[in-house]
Specification:
This protein is an alpha+beta fold. The chain contains 5 helices and 23 strands. It has 3 domains: 97 residues, Beta Barrel (conserved putative lor/sdh protein from methanococcus maripaludis s2 fold), CATH 2.40.420.20; 84 residues, Elongation Factor Tu (Ef-tu), domain 3, CATH 2.40.30; 136 residues, RNA polymerase II/Efflux pump adaptor protein, barrel-sandwich hybrid domain (OB fold (Dihydrolipoamide Acetyltransferase, E2P)). Pfam families: RND-MFP_C.
Length: 369
């Protein structure tokens, strides 16, 4: 009987809920943070957990930002144009057939000298026109021979013939020689396509035997050391407001000098000219390439300069940056920005001094789910 009573008491004791010791609350274990391990992942609040090892693999770099007052910048659409003083076009003066020059037809990208013959154009003429020219040439040659004989006889009789008759015969002979040369060039002559400037062939629209029309552009030559861009401003800019400009070429930012502004609108926009000279600058961008240039103005704006690559887009297509809030946590922050130069933007809202913004690897962090 005592044994059965002891077993019942033990069973009842184990059936009751266990009481926690003093200073311990077993209910808190349910609210403990999960062990994230070493797997990069995006948490429910949008924060990205990225272990140190993954940061090194992705090449993530951060930099602190500080507010600064910089010149205000606007972004304008533009395109690469030819320098009218150092570039040129080679056009056919007459309709005809293309023949190779002394060195053959120049290839695209080859350098040419000023005055160099790039190709020949054999004038196109019909059969009747050629026959008429040939007949005129034959008649003029016959008259040339008669004039030579007449001049020779007059010179033999120089003592009895007035000098004015000899001079008239000499003038007539010279005129016939000129007519023969002109008709001969018209029958079998050809027009030379000469390089107007020294530079690099940017476009070649000719092959041997090709028939071209008059005024057709056959070659385009650019200056290899000069870059010129024409931008369109759709807002009124006061004279002297524009200081300089920059254009991004890959990861490189090329500074441009302001050359001038047109005083007549084109398609409701004001054309602005920018340019710069340097070794190989003219070969960085092809003619007609559309670009975006950042134009610096005299007025200023305050914000946080950050590299262009630090700016990414959220799933809602909103501009944002990634800020490092702890050694392995990155928080997205929505920002407002405006262009600064070819490689940087000016964040005007959304950051604070001292924030460590991701400047390398932001696009990779943005893809973590």
């Amino acid at each position: 009987m005592k044994r059965e009573l002891l077993i019942g008491c033990l069973a009842a004791a184990f059936a009751l809920p266990l009481a926690a010791h003093e200073g311990h609350d077993h209910g808190d274990e349910k609210a403990a943070l999960p062990n994230l391990g070493n797997t990069p992942q995006r948490l429910a609040d949008g924060v990205v957990f990225l272990p140190k090892a993954a940061q090194r693999q992705l090449g993530v770099l951060t930099a602190p930002v500080a507010a600064a007052e910089v010149a205000r910048t606007i972004e304008l659409p533009g395109q690469v144009v030819m320098d009218p003083q150092r570039g040129g076009r080679v056009q056919a003066m007459l309709a005809g057939r293309i023949e190779a020059g002394p060195k053959g037809l120049p290839a695209v990208g080859s350098r040419v000298r000023k005055g160099e013959v790039l190709a020949w154009v054999v004038p196109a003429a019909g059969q009747l026109e050629r026959a008429d020219l040939a007949a005129q040439l034959a008649e003029t040659q016959a008259a040339w021979q008669l004039a030579e004989k007449r001049l020779a006889r007059l010179r033999e009789l120089a003592d009895t013939v007035p000098g004015k008759d000899i001079e008239a015969a000499e003038s007539e002979l010279a005129s016939l020689k000129g007519r023969v040369a002109a008709l001969g060039h018209g029958v079998s002559g050809r027009d030379a396509l000469v390089a107007p400037v020294a530079g690099v062939v940017a476009a070649a629209n000719a092959v041997v035997g090709q028939v071209v029309d008059a005024r057709e552009v056959v070659f385009e030559i650019v200056d290899p050391d000069g870059l010129q861009i024409e931008a369109l401003a759709y807002e009124a800019l006061a004279p002297g407001e524009v200081l300089a400009a920059a254009v991004g070429v890959g990861e490189r930012s090329v500074e441009l000098d302001f050359l001038g502004a047109a005083r007549r609108l084109r398609e409701q926009a004001l054309p602005l000219q920018f340019g710069q000279r340097g070794d190989g600058l003219g070969l960085l961008l092809p003619l007609g390439q559309p670009v975006k240039i950042q134009v610096k103005l005299r007025s200023t704006a305050k914000g946080w300069p950050v590299p262009q690559r630090a700016l990414v887009r959220s799933a809602a297509n909103v501009a944002m940056v990634w800020v490092k809030t702890s050694p392995e946590r990155f928080t997205p922050k929505t920002v407002r920005s405006q262009p600064l130069d070819g490689g940087h933007v000016l964040v005007t809202d959304g950051l604070a001094d001292g924030d460590r913004v991701v400047v390398d690897g932001a696009t990779l962090i943005n893809q973590i789910r």
